[in-house]
Amino acid sequence: MQSCFALPFLFNLQSGVLMDVKGVIADYWDKRSHTYHNDLNKLRADEHSIWVGALKDVLNGGEHLKILDLGTGPGFLALILAEIGHEVTGLDISEGMLEKARYNARARNLMIDFCLADAENLPFQDEDFDLVVSKYLLWTLPHPERAVDEWNRVLKPGGKVVLIDGVWFDPAINRWLRRNLSTLLAIVTERRNPWRFKRYYNPIKDRLPFYSGVKPHELYTLFNEAGLTNVSLKPLSEVQEFYMNCGSLSRKIIHKEPNFILTGEKIRC
Ligand SMILES: C[S@@+](CC[C@H](N)C(=O)[O-])C[C@H]1O[C@@H](n2cnc3c(N)ncnc32)[C@H](O)[C@@H]1O
């Protein structure tokens, strides 16, 4: 198991405000880890091949890669990538999530390093990984530009950053209505507590630049300013279609929000 000292270090150095935001986020995901992990286990078998297909363009045609999965949660991408033979480290700010991720890796006989740390302050040396991936993390980061700089730092030259996200909290009225309908369904069918999310995130959402979603040109700027090249953004149409056909009713509604995959490459020297 990798030893990761970044989190206490970060907490000693950062201002009180930043510490609060990160503390709130870690606390929320600790509490959400149980239901999030259950969702993952319900859908895993079918989702696996859909996501392998969605990632195949960034996996260098089967070459063995050293991969860092940021905001790994219960290990969704880390498990898929380890299952197809890559050397994976999963990192998260929530110990609750990492417990679930370790459990999921053990249950599948997979060797994955899991590390409690902050995706904006990585405890790794420069040029350590071939690929840095994150799924559904960007929207909850207070300093996305700092984060992408860090991701670029730990990449080997020619390595790639892969970011998967969606426009989750678009304030447009039709999307707002659909989101709330999805929430109501989740309360009834999945016994989730949606007010917990609002209680945690409403006070901090103004500090999260991408909380309400991102526009493609902002992402290009984010990656280009971090020094990444060959930046490309694609819609995740197959993934979207999968959730439309196979997910729970509440997921079907929320997954109409566009999902995308953004990749950028570290300049070779
Ligand atoms: C929406 S979940 C996504 C989990 C997983 N990637 C997935 O797709 O199922 C967001 C995850 O990011 C983690 N997270 C939030 N802020 C973080 C940070 N600054 N550093 C590392 N992880 C963070 C949360 O604890 C949570 O596990």
Automatic annotation (TrEMBL):
Entries under InterPro entries matching the protein: Methyltransf_11, SAM-dependent_MTases_sf
Domain of life (superkingdom): Archaea
Pfam families (alphabetical): Methyltransf_11 (PF08241)
CDD domains: AdoMet_MTases
Molecular function terms, GO-annotated: S-adenosylmethionine-dependent methyltransferase activity
Domain Methyltransferase type stretches: 68-163
SUPFAM superfamilies tied to this protein: S-adenosyl-L-methionine-dependent methyltransferases
PANTHER family noted in UniProt: 2-METHOXY-6-POLYPRENYL-1,4-BENZOQUINOL METHYLASE, MITOCHONDRIAL, METHYLTRANSFERASE
Name the record gives this protein: SAM-dependent methlyltransferase
UniProt lineage: Archaea, Methanobacteriati, Methanobacteriota, Stenosarchaea group, Methanomicrobia
